[in-house]
Design brief:
Strands 1-5-4-3-2 form a 5-stranded mixed sheet. With about 90 residues, the chain is an alpha+beta fold. A hairpin with a 7-residue loop joins strand 2 and strand 3. The longest helix is centred in the N-terminal third of the chain and has 16 residues. The chain is built from 2 helices and 5 strands.
Amino acid sequence: MSYALDLTVRARRGFMALPLAVQELVLDALEKISADPEFLVERRPLFPDALYDDDFLVGGLRYYIFIVAQRDRANETIRVKRIHHLVRRK
């Protein structure tokens, strides 16, 4: 069973800052996390949030994507707090 996704305003802003082609890849990544939350790497006890990172090559640029989230096992929800990215030339 998939977890529900809840994106904060900050996460939505980070998502909207990406080019459309990269947004589609990030949506695929969010689906992947929703289907299997074990893709989120927990960093406790130092950090309360979990992290998922990936990189995509689009239009000759490499996009490094960082999704910061909290998993709520009781409510089967993943709250996406931030979506960050870095871009490098190939």
